[in-house]
Design goal:
The complex is a heterodimer of chains A (110) and B (114). With 110 residues, chain A is mostly beta strands. Chain A is built from no helices and 11 strands. In chain B, the strands form 2 sheets. In chain B, strands 2, 4, 5, 6, 9, 10 and 11 form a 7-stranded mixed β-sheet that branches. The chains are: A mainly beta (110), B mainly beta (114).
C-alpha cells in the first residue's frame, strides 16, 4: 500500500535553516502538502505543491519536489522557537483520501 | 473567525463505556472527517461524510460509528472503548472532495480509556 515516510526528529539552532524530508510512494499523487501540529492542537496547513512543480516558495518556507525520486522537502529559513512543532507531509491520492507521514518533530534551540 | 471546534478537549472514559465526541464547523463545508491519531503516528482516517453520505474506511472497526445530523455538526461514537482506542481524535472539514481540497482541522479531543 501507499506509504509516506519521514524522519522522526530534527533539532536546529534558532536562526538556522531547517530541512524536513519526506518520501512518498504514490506516483499518481497530484498534490503534496505540509501540515504543522503544535502541542495539543490540530493540524494546520502550511503549504502545498502541485506535482508538476519542482519548487514553491512562500515567505520563509521553500518546498522542493523531486518527482523522479518521490522526495519532498520543506525548508524553513531563519528558524524561530515558534516553529517548534511536528511537521507532517501528506499526499493526496485523489478525492478525499490523504495519506499522512508519521511526522517530524522539530525542536528549535535558543 | 470561521473554524472547526471540537469538544471536549480531553475526555476520560471507562473501558467498555460508550463515549461520544463532538465536532462543529462554521465553514459551511460539505465534507467532515474523523481521524484517529495515536502517539507518534500519522493521523488515520476513520470515515467521512459528504453532506449526508457516510463513507467508512475499510479497516475502521465496527466499534466506531458516526452521525451527522446537519451540515454543522458531526459526532464520533465509540460504542465499547478498549484500551487501544486511547488516542487523539481529530475532526477535519473540506469544502468538497476533489483533488486539492484543503483540510481544516479542529484542535482534537484526547481520549483516555481507564
Amino acid at each position: 500500500g501507499e506509504d509516506v515516510e519521514q524522519s522522526l526528529f530534527l533539532s536546529v539552532r534558532e536562526g538556522d535553516s531547517s530541512v524536513i524530508n519526506c518520501t512518498y510512494t504514490d506516483s499518481s499523487s497530484t498534490y503534496l502538502y505540509w501540515y504543522k501540529q503544535e502541542p495539543g492542537a490540530g493540524l494546520q496547513l502550511l503549504t502545498y505543491i502541485f506535482s508538476n512543480m519542482d519548487m514553491k516558495q512562500d515567505q520563509r518556507l521553500t518546498v522542493l519536489l523531486n518527482k523522479k525520486d518521490k522526495h519532498l522537502s520543506l525548508r524553513i529559513a531563519d528558524t524561530q522557537t515558534g516553529d517548534s512543532a511536528i511537521y507532517f507531509c501528506a499526499e493526496n491520492e485523489g478525492t478525499y483520501k490523504y495519506i499522512f507521514g508519521t511526522g517530524t518533530r522539530l525542536k528549535v534551540l535558543a | 473567525d470561521a473554524m472547526v471546534i471540537q469538544n471536549p478537549r480531553y475526555q476520560v472514559t471507562q473501558f467498555g463505556k460508550p463515549v461520544t465526541l463532538s465536532c462543529s464547523q462554521t465553514l459551511n463545508h460539505n465534507v467532515m472527517y474523523w481521524y484517529q491519531q495515536k502517539s507518534s503516528q500519522a493521523p488515520k482516517l476513520l470515515f467521512h461524510y459528504y453532506d449526508k453520505d457516510f463513507n467508512n474506511e475499510a479497516d475502521t472497526p465496527d466499534n466506531f460509528q458516526s452521525r451527522r445530523p446537519n451540515t454543522s455538526f458531526c459526532f464520533l461514537d465509540i460504542r465499547s472503548p478498549g484500551l487501544g482506542d486511547a488516542a487523539m481524535y481529530l475532526c477535519a472539514t473540506s469544502r468538497g472532495a476533489t483533488t486539492n481540497e484543503k483540510l481544516f482541522f479542529g484542535s482534537g479531543t484526547q481520549l483516555s480509556v481507564l
